[in-house]
Amino acid sequence: MNMSNSIFDWLNLIAGNVWLYGGAFFLVLGILVFVHEWGHYYVAKLCGVKVESFSVGFGKELFGFTDKAGTRWKFSLVPLGGYVKMFGDVDPASAKSADGVAEEDSEEIRPFTEEEKGVAFFSQPVLKRAAIVFAGPAINFIFAILIMFLLYTFYGKPITPPLSTSVIVDSAAYEAGFEPHDKILEIDGKEVLHFEDIRRAVAVGLDKTRVFTVLRDGEEVKLSATPKVETIEDRFGFKHTKGFLGIISPGNAIDISKITKIDDEAVQDVEETRAMIVERLGQPFTISMPGADGEDRLLINPLPSLNKNIDNGDSQEFNVLVLESSREETFLKLPMGQAFTASLVETKNITVSTMEALGQIFVGSRSATELGGIIRIGAIAGDMAKSGFIALVAFTALLSINLGLINLFPIPMLDGGHLVFYAVESIKGSPLSETVQEYAFRVGLVILVGVMLFANLNDIVQLIR
Questions:
Q1: 452: closest CA among 18, 53, 58?
Q2: Domains, the chain
Q3: Which residue from 131, 127, 135, 115 is spatially nearest to 50, judged by alpha carbons?
Q4: Is position 233 annotated as part of the catalytic site?
Q5: Could you give the angle at the alpha carbon of 250 between the alpha carbons of 249 and 255, nearest 5°?
Q6: CA torsion sign, 300 to 306 to 311 to 316?
Q7: Mind listing the pLDDT tens digit for each residue in 185-226?
Q8: pLDDT digits (tens, 9 = 90+) for 262-300
Q9: Which of 144, 347, 375, 397 would be a feasible disulfide site paired with 459, CB 3.0-4.6 Å?
Q10: Terminal Cα distance for the chain, rounded
């Protein structure tokens, strides 16, 4: 009965938001596919290669047009990818070159002329072919950098100070000796600029022991902490594993009516809570509040200077406990030079984090069930669309980086597989035989289909559960 209700609730949710979730998913995917294939197309044209067709989607053509250069631009039936088919190739994957050219109104195949060979993909020098193939993933990274550059310049970069406003009791941070108002300067010798740097390092690192350099009362202190691994489940039922440290980022305030205990002593009402807090201002103590999984206990040290009006009935800060002067998150517009640098750094951080997480899945320290398919991506895209245009644009940048990265994997059928073949060709002095390449592409196809099936079936199973 519970499983049936869960499935019904999920179907009802999707049905009520089908245009939002489906529209957001196909919009983002369509843009990224176009960008990726345009990278191949543009560099191919620069290299003098004739492009026969540029398709967003696979299968039967829905609509399109042919430009003056003879390239057919089209949208196809299955909108889950795309391709650029170049002159001289048997198929869009460039897995095999054609034997010749089919004459119009005839089934006969004639050999390529010298002029035709000059614009065929297969006859280009290996460096040109490698550049054309590499351009697809490269433009995905460039596109992501451009998106973040524009966001940081005209909207702002989300900034949260790397401060510990409170510490969760019995967490890894509590056991390591973190205190409220600690400012995290470094993690394993790497500089920390924002709280987001801490979140990323801890979440991806799982239970890897880290050395934190914190600034406390004007002095640097070294703390060694081993984050605890926790599995969280979103509202769709998808599970994600991450490391959990236990320090709370800067937030606005706490409603003291939500506090149930102070120093493990139960409080009866707001008046008693306020009085006990006022007595303890400027010194560390614990508070307890209802949490998602029971009771949350926090070690705090609210400053008297920030809580002057906690007992002032005429103030808007009456009954409000302020833990830190900094707000949860601010958006800081950056000068163009800084915005560009920040975009490069963020792209690098996302790439490294993604590779680290995939490596953990490969060695088994992270569950393979975290691999998501089109259902999970669609769910996230829909949620980002509901959160607003900026959130959807930021998600597009993230997905563009992942699309570029995945395509660089050395798997036949992907761009990375082609680049491996070209590297071997440049070293060997001649291309691998078509037989070897054909078998390699078959293996690559099996791998890709297997991963896609696993990821999408995994989404379905988690939704049913």
A1: 58
A2: 17-47+124-150+389-464 (no CATH), 163-331 (2.30.42.10)
A3: 115
A4: no
A5: 110
A6: negative
A7: 999 988 888 888 888 888 888 888 999 999 998 899 999 999
A8: 888 888 888 888 888 888 888 999 988 887 667 888 898
A9: 375
A10: 12
Contacts of 377 (CB under 8 A, 6+ apart): 25, 29, 399
Q: How far apart are CA 432 and CA 412, in angstroms?
A: 13
Rounded alpha-carbon distances, angstroms, from residue 124 to 86, 116, 324: 12, 11, 62
22-53 burial code (b ≥16 CB/10 A, e <16): eebbbebbbebbebbbbbbbebbeebebbbeb
User: Buried (b) or exposed (e) across 104-120, using 16+ Cβ within 10 A?
Assistant: eeeeeeeebeeebeebb
- β-pairing, 210-216 with 163-164? unpaired
The owner of tokens 């920390």 is 192
How many residues are recorded in the chain? 465
Task: Report d(CA 185, CA 192) in Å as an integer.
Answer: 5
Residue 103 has a pLDDT of: 65
Quick one: which H or E segment has residue 233? strand 228-233
- Per the structure block, which two tokens stand in for 216? 């406390």
**Where do we find the tokens 């995994």?**
458
**Could you tell me if 92 and 85 are in contact, meaning their C-beta atoms sit under 8 angstroms apart?**
yes
Q: Which of 37, 196, 324, 346 is catalytic?
A: 37
